[in-house]
Amino acid sequence: MSLSAETKEKLKRARELRGVSPELLARQKENIRIQKAILEGALEPISVPDLAQNTGISSEIVFWHVNALRKYDKMVDVKKSGDYWLYKKK
Amino acid sequence: MSTVESPDTNAPKILIITTIASSYTGANTVGQARAQYAPNTYIMRVPDPVMFPEDFYLRCFEKGFSGIIIMSSGSDCPYEGAYGRLSARVGRVYLTMREKGIPTNRLKLTTVCTVCKHAFLKEIDDMQKVVREQAA
Amino acid sequence: MKYDTLVIGAGIAGLQAALDLAEQGRQVVLVEKNPSIGGRMISLSKVYPTLDCASCITTPRMASVAHHPNITTLTYTEVKQVIAQPDGTYHAHISKKPRFIEEDKCIGCKRCEEVCPVYIRDDFEHNLGAKKAISIPFTNAIPQFPVLTPDQCTWCGACANACPVDCIDYLQEPRDIFVEVGAVLVATGFELTPFNAKPQYGGGVLPNVITSLQGERLLAPHGPFGRVLRPSDGKVPDSIAFVQCAGSRDASLGVPYCSRVCCMYAIKQAMLLSGSLPTADITIYYMDIRAFGKGYEAFYQNAKAMGINFVKAKVGRIRAGEDGNVFLRIERQEESSQPEEMNHDLVILSLGMKPQWNPKTLAWDMETDLDGFVKSPDAPMDPATTTCAGVYACGTATGPKDIVDTIIEAGNAAMVVGNHLARGNA
Amino acid sequence: MSNLEPNEPHVGVYICHCGGNISDVIDVKRVATELGLHPNVVISREFPFMCSDAGQKLVIEDIRSGKINRVVIAACSPMLHELTFRKTLQRAALNPFLYEHVNIREQASWVHKGDHEGATQKAIRLARAGVEKILLQDELEEIQAKATKHVLVIGGGPAGLKAALNMAARNLRVTLVEKSSRLGGHLHELDTLYPSGESASALLAKLLAQVNESPLITVVVGTTVTAWDGFVGNFTATLSSGATVNAGAVIMATGYDHVIPAGGEYNYGGDPRVTTLPKLIEHLKTSAGKPLVWNGVPVKSVAFIHCVGSRQTEGVHAPQADGKVNDYCSRVCCTAALHSINVLKARQPDLDIYDLYRDIRTYGRGHEAIYEQASKNGVLFFRFTEDAQPEIREHTVVVKDILTWGEEVEIPADLVVLVTGIKQGAVGELIDMMKLPVSSDRFLQEAHPKLRPVEVANNGFFLAGNCQAPMDLVESSAAAGAAASKIAALLSKDYIPLDPYVARIDSEKCTGCEACIPECSYTGALFMNEGTKKAEVNAALCKGCGACVAVCAPRALDLAGWSIAQMEAMVDAMVTEVPA
Amino acid sequence: MAIQINPKLLPDLMAYGAGDISACFNCGNCTAVCALSESGASFPRRMIRMGQLGAKKELLSAAEPWLCYACGECSQTCPRAAEPAEYMASLRRFQIAHLDPTGMGRLWFKVPAFALLVSLALIGVFGAFMISVKGSKVFPEWLFSNIVAYEAIHHVGMIVGAVLVVLLLMSFITLVRRSGILPLLKGRNPLGALLWLGKEMVTMKRHGDCEAKSVKPIPKHKDPRLIHLGIMWGFIGLAIATSLDFLFIYFLGFTVVWPARIIGTIGGLAMLAGVSAAIWRRVADPEAGTRHTRFADGWVLFFLWVLAVTGFWLEVVVTIRVQNIVHDWVLILHAAMAMELVLLFGMTKMAHVIYRPFMLLKYRLEQTAVGNG
Fold first, then answer.
1. pLDDT confidence of residue E158
2. Structure confidence at residue D73 (pLDDT)
């Protein structure tokens, strides 16, 4: 399904009216980078601290994104290992 | 069709007849407290067990229940005279059970209130022992 | 449009009062500023002292309100102004915020949310979880419409592209609604006292120091992590502390009053935690345990019997330890006077309640008390009455209180509002 | 596709996950699949929250599409949501009684956490039993009871007065019955009220004036209810005066009694220098601003001891008359004591006051300020635990004080005030007669603390104030308003809808043996029709206990919605095997 | 043995400045938030509770008031706004006042009007003494020397000096007795503790620890530790300079710029800066630790400030060798105030110079005893 002409026009107007801040774009780019790194790093079940260490991203941010990806069905929790759960790309 | 029978399918079953006013709520209280008991227990909810004719209990035994606990409201019963009638009726059921050779401890009339958590669990525990002995 | 009553706020107080009024045959317009009705209660895990799940009690009420023929529900809508009329009625100016979707077309299919590429912090999960820049607020939300967050949207068009009914409207503007009502009921609820009010506690700085509402979400069946884990690294916490009076009974925070619910919700959360983490150590640091309601003391004693530690101490400082752990500094009161640092891996600050909304913003003659909550000048006999004729209040708008007390107050408010309307008709 | 005849029952089965409350233990998919195999089940689904709007919508759509005409929902306890789903069926224009609620949470998933297989099998059997029951269910119709637009309020304290005034404001006639010789209850005892400081007498005078002015309120003092009959919409109370009152609903506003310290607790009764808070308040009320003199001796120091008769522990405290201790908190005493302390301090700033507490529970709006004021007034606080009670000695009180790290502290005291709690009033006979449920704290039990906080499970009974639990004036006023609000809705129409679960007779089968007649305890509910010589039931008077059903040899009698055939079908379903 | 209650002590304590402490509900926040509170030296709540119970003996012997440096964190975070920091300050005043055998110390702290009168009167007396002794040109010579013989004045001065020494000795004996330091010294070599004390006094490390934990960073110009170090080292510098000055003049007949004058100047500057900052902190932007400054405490700061300023004045005058009547007045004022400060040393805040090190020593002995035991 493609956008109707009317919606396209509205989208264009919305962009003009509200704009997209550089900060927002930068954050979005960063989020995409982090999620990519997480998904690539979680081909096999892995814990958040290990994932954080492997990707060099802080464990707090990794954990937030792991849950974001879990919520939208891109990751699953596999099992508990020690004090941590292991997560995997779906 | 071949079905693998779970151990539970053959496990002795206990029917628990509860009253809406007291013991059914009591059973919920047990759940709210997350107390644990075995799942071979089937709780039936009725306004008052006084409604059951004597043959109902015998039929339950015939059909496969190993034990029956009637958890009445006792003195809290909202229905006038019902408890007296019920205990008289259970007395008559015991007579028939004896005649038929069914151990009378497989039927128990007791009182459980809305917050009688311990009484509820104790009754189940006691009956579990009875039905296990019967099965053995 | 004319109604008998305007109810502001569709939390449990507003829902209950609206239902009671509707059952008495009154026409109610119920205004909620959030995208869904249900208020704070719908986000709670379970509720004391019965440990019923909060959704199990709230959702049916939400459904009853949504379907009641005498109740008109306006969500994502704010009351801008209320003007008293000479005849004793009120005119209200209400503004409907744009969801950026056409509500009459939307089928709540969630396709837009699935395709949206922008992950943002989920306010329903108190930022612990994620949502999309366009998303349905939460699973049980009523109505099931998505909301687009304009300042986080990159206007990529993905949602419109995916919408099967073409209901995305990127240029939607706020819409004005005017209603005439015979009486107003303020049920605007509470918000938590500020997380960072006491910098010594590290609220908002230390990731493993969380608010009590975040604690609720951790324990909720559909919580952000699916189970109880600590936010810094997803560890299953083994030692959890509750810091009581972290936002109340503290003149230095400007909240000298008791928030009334924190003792009980902390005990409840502690019990739920010990249920889901049977080996964890759970400690509640308190000044006085205020288990005052019906069945509450027994609840408290049960918690003690379950092995939850109660330590009488006001926590002085919280600092970061190693590996995300957190140290709490207390005075060991029951043994000696010596201070001691307690090591925990998750800390829940039992924050208090402050009013969600200041009615003075509507520029009417409705007064608030020193504590910031709506003033009840006739409190002993008429707790719902305010300083403004024809305007009533209930629930946490008139001071901190728990769900049981709120529901009773809401019932009373429905009575008093109904009496006011009856007088008007006579 | 089902091959059922259109007029046959088509059952829809819905298994609720209840978040994870059920689905974490019970394999809900398997339950749904298994139930789908039943010949009469045409739809079998599982869903995260059946009680949510989306869940209810699902049921409505399935009914409206014509696929199903019977509904079984396996979820939480029916106490919570049976009514919710009845209303759902109503919205879908289906008879609301063609619905069976199966409890697989409180009585399965929550209590069999460690046995997922056992719990799942049990859930399957229970759901099947639900299906069997509903297959034998007929369309029941609500019974409509006449709504007498007259309310009986029992108790003339502030809660009763407030409830009466509220209902009179809605044109409901009220009879207010008060046991003692005057209205006002405990308001007469009080001096000033917290937190406002206003005079209790002035407030009472205002209330009484309003009650006197109302033409709709009939006040009967010095009177008790001696006999009770009837049902919601049409109760009959016989008063001690011999008069009868017809009422559609009744508000219990019977209030509370003060706990009297038992068995010489803290030397009460033996030592004249030991008194209770209510007695002190009475003294404050009558001594009008004068310095404190007790038994003719001027008092220089007073010690207050909290939690007397409240928060009691077995083994530490002597039991009450019924053998149980008062393990509940009396809620109002902390603030009441501190308020009185401030009154004393205002009169007599040099009075030394000591306060011995376990937890200070100044929870309410404005209460904490009263506590703070007491501190600032120089009151010295001590904290003790339940296992180390303070000890009364000659002119001193000795306590192991937590605030001083468990050191023993000796406190000078010319007068010791025991801050006594609140207990259920002497209404045992009344509530036995009315058959009202009582909670473990002996107060009257509400139907549900959140869903129905001012209603009793027994239809037509409502609670206002301290008969339900200790509360202060603000709270009991709110409770009185809430109870009145429920009655205003209940009596707003000319009839009250009632559950149709009453005895009914198949006159074809009735042999006229009359065996059932003596079984019935309710006059007029079951009788022999002299013409037909068969038994008949008056549905409005039948309580639905089923006592008559058990003795009916030809099985002509049955309880609507609870027939023996239904129960037997359930038993059969419960014992039927479940494939693993 | 049960603790006996004395409810009358707290009102008395509150007269020393702890006006809000009755609001305390014993939550323990102050002790928990305090960076210096520790096992065996727990405060402020332990002290507050002792005050509430009326345990006067414990309060008078406690080292804890002197372990507190009034950072104010407890007062800032006190849930009842009971000002525990101010209470600790009051306890210091209380101890000082109760050390004074004349009992005047109590009035000095509790009654500002009394303190003001005494202070002014003493300036007058000492001023007169100076005028008469030095034979100033401020007044005609006959005014003093004709009425009071120089010898008489001298003798009176000697007697007053002797009384002062006796009083100070009595105070010190009381201090030693009350503090309970003697049993701690039994069979122990106090050298380690003394060394620790010396190091602590030089660096005021504990004061620094206290500030390091403060949630709000403290700007240097308001840093109470720096201010105190300035005043303290300035004072010591001046003392050294004065002694050197005296020695040089006594033995050589003249003084030298280095080291006496330079040390004196640096010391004077440090003290002036410290005192000015301390006054400014109290006046311009009072915080938890400074908003309750009592007259008796402000008096000390005021005296020190005037002494510093007049000291410099005289320094300049001596250097440029200008003489006139104004300078004479300044000299008299300087000397009179200095004398008053010395006389009142034992009953004013100045006594902390003895008290704090003494109690720190006791604390150290206690802590190390606990460590050894």
1. 79
2. 97
State the residue for tokens 């759509």.
D61
Whether the bond into C35 is cis, omega within 30 of 0: no
Q: Tokens for C80, please give them.
A: 């801008």
**How confident is the model over D385-441, as pLDDT tens digits?**
988 999 999 889 999 999 999 999 999 999 999 999 999 999 999 998 998 889 889
pLDDT in tens, B44-67: 999 999 999 999 999 999 999 999
Range list of H helices, C48-138:
54-67, 111-115
Question: Which residues of chain C does B31 touch, with a Cβ-Cβ cutoff of 8 Å?
Answer: none
The pLDDT value recorded for residue B7 is: 44
> Per-domain residue ranges for chain B?
13-135
Residue A74 belongs to domain spanning? 45-90
Task: State the average pLDDT for chain D.
Answer: 93
| Residues 6 or more apart in contact with residue D456 via CB below 8 angstroms | D252, D436, D437, D444, D445, D446, D447, D462, D463
Tell which wins on pLDDT, D82 or D328.
D328
Cα separation, E231 vs C245, in Å, equals: 41
> Cα distance from D502 to chain C (closest Cα, Å)?
26
Beta bridge mates, C368: C374
Both tokens assigned to E10: 């707290």
- CATH class for the domain made up of C193-353: alpha beta
CB of C23 less than 8 A from some CB of B: no
**What pLDDT, on the 0 to 100 scale, is given for residue E133?**
65
Return the closest-CA partner of residue B49 out of D125, D132, D559: D559
The architecture that CATH gives domain C2-97+174-189+356-425 is 3-Layer(bba) Sandwich (3.50)
Sign of CA pseudo-dihedral E346, E350, E355, E361: negative
Percentage helix, strand, coil for chain B under 3-state DSSP, each rounded to 5: 50, 20, 30
Same CATH topology for D150-255+425-496 and D502-559? no
- Interface B-D, measured as beta-carbon pairs within 8 A, has a size of 151
Q: Are C193 and C310 in contact (CB under 8 A)?
A: no
User: Which two three-digit tokens encode residue A45?
Assistant: 């079940």
Contact partners of D by the rule of 3+ C-beta pairs under 8 A? B, C, E
CATH number assigned to the domain covering D150-255+425-496? 3.50.50.60
Residue closest to B102 by CA, chosen among B134, B133, B128, B124: B134
Fold exhibited by the domain E127-369: Fumarate Reductase Cytochrome B subunit (1.20.950)
What is the band of C41 on the pLDDT scale with cuts at 50, 70, 90?
Answer: very high
pLDDT at D549 over 90: yes
DSSP state at residue D452: B
- With an 8 Å CB cutoff and a minimum of 3 pairs, decide whether chains D and C touch: yes
The SS3 call for residue E125 is: helix
> What pLDDT does residue D542 have?
87
In a mutagenesis test of the B interface, which of D575, D576, D578 is the best target, namely the one with the most B β-carbons within 10 Å? D575
Using alpha carbons only, what angle is made at residue E12 by residues E8 and E16, rounded to the nearest 5 degrees?
A: 160
Cis before C49 (ω within 30): yes
Give the CB-side neighbour count of residue E54, counting CA atoms within 13 A.
16
Let me know if residue A70 belongs to a domain.
Answer: yes
**Range with the poorest average pLDDT among B9-13, D445-449, D468-472, E15-19:** B9-13
E44 upstream amide cis, omega within 30 of 0? yes
Select the residue of D198, D450, D469 nearest C403 (Cβ to Cβ): D450
What would the 3-class secondary structure string for D550-569 be?
HCCCCCCEEECCCCHHHHHH
